[in-house]
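Re: the request from the purification team.
They wanted to know what the chain is likely to look like in 3D before they choose a buffer screen. I agreed to run a prediction and write the result into the notebook, where they can find it.
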Amino acid sequence: MQKSPLNYRTAFLLALAISLLMNMLFLIMFFFSQSTAKMDGHVQHIFRLDMTLLRIFFNFLVAFLLYLLNFNLLKHKWFSRKGRRIYSILTVLVCTAIISCICSLVHMKFDDFGPHPYRAIGGGMFRDYLIAIVVILSSQLIYLSNKQQQTALENERLQAEYMKTRFMALKNQVDPHFLFNSLNTLSSLIQTDADKAQEYVQQLSYVFRYTLQNKEIITLEEELKFTLAYCHLMQIRYGDNLQFIQNTDEKYYSYFIVPLSLQILVENAIKHNVVSNRQPLAITFSTSEKATIKISNPVQPKKDAESGESIGLSNLAERYRLLWSKEIAIRNAGGIFEVEIPLIA
């Protein structure tokens, strides 16, 4: 929760600044004026320091009290936002007259206002109303600025919550997709090779333990270990017709990546390409100096291949946008399909 700037410290600093600025001319005259006068045989400055300091004190006191009053009125929720500001302005203007009269009467005990003290009190009230106007304008500015900051922070919090919810929805959409394909593969193996089916179940248990973890990001080393286990499952099914080539630099193993990202790309490559004795499929993993990892394969489209990108690939792209505002690169040229994923240090 952001701390409100409408507090004692702000009131003190602003009141001090106003009182010093209002009496700056008197201070300058005192320090630099050569004007002197003889009083009771003594040479004195016309502009007395004690009276200047007294004026600074009373100006500070008026401004400080008005700031505290205005801040407290603005923070209370007795009225709507607009009504609260109008009420605080009217209250400050009324209280200014009361505070000004009290301060002027106290001031009279320390200084001689001459033969027309009430005229001096009126002049002091005029000055204090100038202070009140400055207090009202600056308080309203601080109040509105603070409200805008709070609104911006709340919007950012809601946006972050939305992104997290959307991210988890996308991840949950991928996991059943992976489960569906894995069960289809297992069903095929049970009918053709019981031993391979048993080995497949053992490897699949490890793979699913990985997919059940609730992590938004993971290291490249962990993701590669899982993906290679998934690749082993695919090789049980396809044998030598499916090959995996790994050219990854270990210096990038501590970098972060989205979970299931490499597995999705392997699954996508197998799904959309022919894997047979006549056309074996080779899938290559390789890192680059740009801190990315590329997954590439030759384009060997199936005759009955589905058009467009797979759910997994499109979801992967959106998960990267939501999590890191990064884009994955998808290229299909020269008979090679390649997806390049940024690695996050």
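For the purification team: The beta strands are 36-39, 42-45, 218-219, 242-247, 256-257, 281-288, 292-298, 329-333, 336-342.
Please add any questions underneath this entry.
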